[in-house]
Design goal:
It is a single chain. Helix content is 40%, strand content 19%. The chain has 12 helices and 9 strands. The mean pLDDT is 96.
Length: 259
């Protein structure tokens, strides 16, 4: 597995692989089973798998949230290698946002609802860093988890609006045996908070926003939203707080169309 730290390094490493197809799996590190599922999907779709490790500061509005995000690059590189990744792009913040950087991308309507309302500027950061990764790696396929349904919707809109020649593959949410969606943030939960958080997938399974909200509040979770937004496929989505940890989840209301 090759590890590249610079844009030039990624492009040089991929130069002799352009005869085949390339998949990109963007991540912020703290890799878990959900990321392994993304890599498996990427491997099944393309000849070369690139995984990015970049904790993108521009999508965090709360410095405490950014500072508290788990970081262990050595473990992430081991996990990427074991999963069969061919190339890891692990840039510094200065490599992605050099001095004088001033160009931003925003998907207006989809990026301002739900997460965009509670985390202003979040999807501007997501859209910008993803477009940068797309132009750096020039993949044929990009792979994201359906757990972040709004992110998938925003990036599909970006790809369509900017006529990007790539395909977005959405992989179904991976869950622990107890039903909780895998997330890097789960490590922050105390045992008691995790027990309360199990109400989240159960509430979404009702497929009814009002009933789901009542179940979440009864479980002692602080609810930011429960909604059926205009995503494809139709989805019921929610964001809650268990203690200081914010969790999101969703359940598609129809059979998932991944491509």
């Amino acid at each position: 597995m090759i590890v590249a730290r610079t844009v030039d390094g990624v492009r040089a490493a991929l130069a002799d692989r352009r005869g085949g197809t390339v998949a990109l799996v963007p991540t912020m590190g703290a890799l878990h089973g959900g990321h392994r599922a993304l890599v498996r999907a990427a491997r099944g779709a393309c000849d070369t798998v690139v995984l990015s490790l970049f904790l993108n500061p521009s999508q965090f509005g709360d410095p405490a949230d950014l500072n508290g995000y788990p970081r262990d690059e050595a473990a992430d590189l081991d996990a990427a290698g074991a999963a069969g990744v061919d190339l890891v792009f692990a840039p510094t913040t200065d490599e992605m946002y050099p001095p004088g950087y001033q160009t931003w991308v925003e998907v207006t309507e989809l990026g301002r609802m739900l997460e965009g309302e509670f985390r202003p500027g979040h999807f501007r950061g997501v859209a910008t860093v993803c477009l940068k990764l797309f132009t750096i790696v020039r993949p044929d396929v990009v792979v994201f988890g359906q757990k972040d349904a709004q992110q998938v919707a925003v990036l599909r809109r970006l790809i369509a609006d900017l006529h990007l020649e790539l395909e977005l593959l959405a992989v179904p949410t991976v869950r622990d045996p107890d039903g909780l969606a895998l997330s890097s943030r789960n490590a922050r939960l105390t045992p008691a908070e995790r027990r309360r958080a199990l109400a989240l997938p159960r509430a979404l399974a009702t497929r009814d926003p009002d009933e789901a909200r009542a179940l979440l509040e009864e479980a002692g979770l602080d609810v930011d939203y429960v909604a059926i937004p205009p995503f494809h496929p139709p989805t019921i989505a929610a964001a809650v707080r268990a203690g200081s940890t914010r969790l999101i989840d969703n359940i598609p209301l129809e059979t998932e169309v991944s491509r």
